[in-house]
Each structure stands twice: as structure tokens, then as C-alpha cells.
Amino acid sequence: MRAVRTGTRGRRAVPWAVVGLWVAALVLLGPLAGKFAGVQQNRAVDYLPDGADSTQVARVQDELPGGESTDLVVVYHRDGGRLTAADRETAAAQIAEVERAYELSDVPRGVPSADGSTLMYPVSSTRPGQDEEAQRAFVDGVRETVGGTGGLSVEVGGPGAVGADMDKVFDTIDGTLLTATIGVVTVLLVLIYRSPFLWLVPLAVAGAATALAMAAGYVTHELFGITITGQSGGIMTVLVLGAGTDYALLLVSRYREELRRHERPYDAMRAALRGCGPAVLASSGTVAAGLLCLLAADLNSSSGMGPVGMIGVLAALVAMTTLLPAVLVLLGRRVFWPLIPAFGSEPKARRSLFAAMGTSATRRPAAVLTGGAVLLGALALGTLNLGGDLRQEDAFTERPESVAAMRTLAEEYPERGAQPITVIAPAGDADEVVERVRKTEGVAEAAPGRADGTWAEITVFATAPPESAGETRTIEALRDTLDGTGAHVGGPSAEQLDLARSEARDRTVIVPLVLAAVFLILVVLLRSLVAPLLLLGAVVAVWGAALGIGGLVFGPLLGFAGTDPAIGLLSFVFLVALGVDYGIFLMHRMREESLNGAEPEAAALTALRTTGGVIASAGVVLAATFAVLTTLPLVALVELGLVIAVGVLLDTFLVRTYLVTTASVLLGRRMWWPGALSRTPEREHRERHPEPV
């Protein structure tokens, strides 16, 4: 009797100990989590590969007197007429005030347009240096100083203004994204659980996981110097809440089932963890392995996103397999009120939607599989409609002042670009380089800038508009002309060009790595070669279809002027890693039923009937969390969120329900080749070929 009491006290002590450890960890890690946003870097150079020509330019600029320059263009424009003498006097007075207030790199000189309706003043300062807050303060100060009256409009553009507007967006991403994601997850959990209390538990645990992930992200940055951008920080938040809620759905569903078989919640939770723990561990391991493949990326932003995303997934896994079980055990059965699962009771029998869907799919499996494949292939053709690479001025869903200024310049100064190309040359060869630059086709103007004893800066304006095909040809011509001189060509447009080229390189390297890593994990888990190939083929088809839907939506419906170069690679990594998750849940149960002696078709239908509801709930939650990205004011995040959300829904309701199920039925035992399940049991063999009497 005493031993029984001791065991009971021990069982009660374990959950309290787990909760106590988590509380202590959150108290200690809270200050570190608060520093996560402060280490995010959002300059273009922070995204660039280390070896890119434009990266070299940015690094040299940091070492020149004054450090990195903040380049602005103040645009005075009178719509439908010429600037008056009073307009020009107003512009001169305001620019003079800017000169008095700030230490500028050079005296601003006004450049009138051919029709006299516009006057632009290039304004540059090296005083803010690399301090983003100081750069933004400089931009805001110039905007407060200048202003139009009586039909005279004034806009502040240029690379510095675009960067400041981008920084303001990233400053709001973390808070906006976290609030919106929590709201979406809350609504879905209330609908799924139909309980006024239960939804609070996984949501609170997901919050603890988010704090843990932020603290770990900050520590990883400090120890290893990984690049953390606003984009990767936002996606980490989505992964923690989305993946964490998925794991919670699986665990709570199994725990509810086990409470009907076990009298004590502690015993029920142990059984639930034994039952669904391997699948959760395998699925999180698959996502982590896929994300780690991003370390091979050339782009700093992509290589940094790998470990940041992995930290988010692992934080969600740890929280949902330790803190969530402990809290649920302490709360007992009453947390499920009003639908409390009583010990020894049977769940209310009701018609299973997924059982009906599976039955309909297996009546004509070949026709269903063919039709689904044709549909996915047709959707994938939409990728042909994807626009070209997204330009920096088209990166916002709503046009900020900096973009409006750049468009005014493009319209009023068609003979020259409004965004400088920066050439860094050895100081001793600066004069020769300037002459070569001026003779290069497509160059409108070139002037020497700052210099030290080693390097000299040359400011170049092209005849073509920024980030146009003509300016790209000019940048390439400059690099060809200056090859062998030790000079480098950079600037905002060159950075965008290098970003696009690095993205193309990364796709060819990382896609095979992700496929190989995920395939190996699936082979170990499923003891088969055919089943992993089936799952990988399914998620690749989903990726193509989701990108195709993006091509049909981005430009024609949403009016986006281009496609972010990173969307192909990032959507592939996330859809393959996350999509295989649901395949693992389905296939793991299918294999379990087969091991228990079920025929292939019966195993497939049982697996779909028992896991379909949970997979559907998890898929909807994950799709909804990524869909939150579409509410942000950056086109790149809207495109990424839309493609992943659509892909997850396609995977959940079409591929897993119909295509994988029908393919499993058609393959039969061959799906488990060369494992033991692929061979016909001896019992069946004897029944088919009885021995003669």
C-alpha cells in the first residue's frame, strides 16, 4: 500500500517538476528573447553572398571616411506645368536648410528636367554611417525639412529613403505577425476543440516555445554570427506557432483517446506519448533537416534562415512534448469540458468524412490518381506566367513616398537613371577607371567621390531607369570593362542583380540536398524505398502546383509587378519539409495497420479514417498561420505566404486524401519494397496453394 502511495506521489511530482523547470527557464531566458529583434539586420548587403561584387563595394564603403553613405534624392515637381521662380526659390531655401542641419558629403546641386516641371537635388551624407537608427533619423529629418505648397509636390526618394521605408516595415513585422498569428490560431483551436478552456493550453505553451526560440536565436547569433533578417525572424514565429499547434493537435487527439482506456491522466499521457511520439519526432526531424540544408546557400539571408527556422521547429517540439503534457496532466479530464472523455466510455459514433472520401477514392483508384496528377500538372503550368524578378521599387504592397519619388524621376528624367551605380577602384588607378567608366556604353555620367589611401569611390549614373534591362546591361558592361583593374561595381541595382544570380545558384544546390536528406529519413522511418519516393513525388507535385497558382494570382489578380527571386527555393524547402510531415503521420499509421495483418487497401483506408481528421485540422492551422504573411506590406512575404498556404491545403485535402491513398491501393504490398511488408505472408501463401491430401 505504501509503495502504491509512493508511486502516486511520484507521478504527481513529475508534471510539477516539468512546469517548474519551464518557469525557471523562461525567467532566465526572457531578457535574451527581448534582444532577438535587436540583432535583426535588414540592409541589402546583409542578404548578399560574401563573394558578390556588390558585397565588396559595400564593405569598402564602410571603411571609407564617414563610413556607409546615405543617398537621397529630393524631388520637386509641379504636375501639368513648369516650375515657377517661387518654386525654385522654395527648393533652394529648403535644401540650404538641410545643408545647415546635416553634414553632407557634397554641396547639393539642382538638376532640372527637360520640360521644366521637375527639379531634383541629390543629397548624400556619410554621417549616419552604419547606424540604422541614425540613417532613418537623417531621412526623417530631411522629409520634415522639405515640403510643398500651392501645387508644388516634394518627395524624398533614393536608396537611403527606400531603405528607411523598408526598415519601418520590418520594425512592425514581429508585433503584427505575432498578434495576427495568435488570433488566427485561437479561432481555429476554439472551433476544433469546441471547449472554452482547452484551446488556452496549447496556445500558452506555443507562447512559451516562441520565447524559447527567440532566446535561442539570439544566443546562436552571438555565438556563431549567423545572419538574422526581419524575414527569417518573422518566419521563425510562424513556424513555432504553426508547427507547435500541429504537434499539439496530434498529442491532444491521442491523449483524449487514451483517457477512455486509462483511469489516471498520467498513465493516459504516457500511452499517448508512446503512440504519437515517434511520428512527431520524425516529422520535426524532417523539417529540421530540410531547413539545415539552407546552410549550403550562397545568400547570407537564406543560409541564416536555415538554423533560425530549425531553432523554431525544435523549440516547438520541446515545448509540446514536455510542457504541454505536464500541464494537461495537472489539469486532468476537466480541461476537456464539456466533452469530457470518461474512463471506459466509447466515443460517440459518427460518420467519418475521411472514411467516405477514402472509400470513394478506392472505387476507381487508377482514374482518381490520373485525374489528380493531370490537375496538378495543369496548375503547374501557371509557373509560366510568373513575372520577372521583383524590383526594389515594387517591393511594397502600398507605395511609400520613396517609391513614388523614384517613379516621378523615371518619368521626368528618361535620359538618365536616378539611382547611382557605385564603383570602387584602387586609389592609384582612380583616374584611369573614371575614364574607362565614362566610355562604357550606357553610362550617362561618372564622377569621383570619397577616397582614402587604398580605395576611391566613383559615382555612376546610367542612361536607363533603375533595375531595368538597360541598366543591367550597363552594370554587366562596367564589370567587363573593369575586369582585371581590381575595381568592383556595386550599388542598389547591382545588389539586386547579384541577389537574383545567387538565388539561381542556390536552387541548383539546395533542392537536391533537401530531397536527399528527406528521402534518407523516410527510408529509415518507413523501412521502404518505394513509399518515400511516393511521398517525395507528391510534395514536389504540390510545390509545382502551388507556384503555378501563384503565377495565376500574383500579377493578374494582385497586380504585383514581379516575383521575388527567393520564392522558388524557400517555398520548395518549406513545402517539401512540412508536406512530408503529414505523409509521415499517414504512412506511419498505414504501416502500423499492415504490421497488424491488414490488407493494403484496408490499411490505407483505416489510416485515412483515423488520421484524416487530425491531419486536416493541422493542415488548416498551418496554412492559416502562413496565410498571415499575406497581411504584411511586403510583396515578397505576401507571395511566400500565399504559395505555402495554398500548397499546404492542396497537400492536405487532395494529395494525402486521394492521391497517396489511391497510389497505396494500386501499389499494394509493393509500396513497402524491399522491406518485409512487401512479401506475402506464409499464411496467405498456404491458403492460396493448399498441400495435396
What does this protein look like?
There is one protein chain. The chain is an alpha+beta fold and 693 residues long. The chain folds into 4 domains: 12-41 and 169-349, Multidrug efflux transporter AcrB transmembrane domain (Multidrug efflux transporter AcrB transmembrane fold, Up-down Bundle); 68-157, 2-Layer Sandwich (Alpha-Beta Plaits), CATH 3.30.70.100; 351-401 and 504-693, Up-down Bundle (Multidrug efflux transporter AcrB transmembrane fold), CATH 1.20.1640.10; 421-490, Ferrodoxin-fold anticodon-binding domain (Alpha-Beta Plaits, 2-Layer Sandwich). Helix content is 65%, strand content 7%. It has helices at residues 2-34, 44-47, 53-63, 85-101, 132-145, 159-193, 200-224, 230-259, 265-292, 300-331, 353-363, 365-380, 401-412, 430-439, 469-481, 492-526, 530-553, 567-595, 600-627, 635-667, 682-688, and strands spanning 70-78, 111-112, 118-125, 152-157, 421-426, 443-451, 455-462, 488-490. A hairpin with a 3-residue loop joins strand 6 (443-451) and strand 7. It is elongated. Mean pLDDT is 84; it is low at 1-6 and 682-693.
Name its key features.
693 residues; alpha+beta; Multidrug efflux transporter AcrB transmembrane fold; Alpha-Beta Plaits; 4 domains; 4-stranded antiparallel beta sheet; 21 helices; disordered N terminus
